[in-house]
Design a protein that fits this description.
This protein is of the alpha+beta class. The chain is built from 7 helices and 3 strands.
Amino acid sequence: MSVDCFRTGETVAADDLREGGRWPGWTAHALAAGYVSVHVVPLRLDGRPIGAVALLNRDSAVLPDADIVVAQGMSDIAALTLTQWPAEARRPHDLLTSLQAAVSAKSSVELAKGLLAESTGVSLTDAMDLLRRYAEKERRPLTAVARALAERSLRPEDLLEGEPRRA
């Protein structure tokens, strides 16, 4: 069934497998597993079939057209997602490393924001604005500016240059 769907690019349906049909070998296995009906929609990318998705049901039933439309839409989204999936699966270690890097970056920015607010007398909101503007002006990542402040290789006053003085 799935091969027929893939070849034609059209939905293939068998509302009651107990009635027999074109796929006797497949039907016997489906019935043995407790499935009574099947509907197969093409897995399409740019309108061309790249696979098929089988919807198996333990009841004999005609799947309403609206359900077929939804199934086809979900199948199209799955096809697009699969083509965008990274070739190499991310390992839990990679995810943990990414999470640790994000937490570290956030901590650096928060530390720099507090340091800047304390040393210049601005609010935390204004300190964040100063950090962002400086990073944009210097074309540096926000986290690099934050780390430079924390490491004292950048002075808080450097961020105020060209800014009106605040009390």
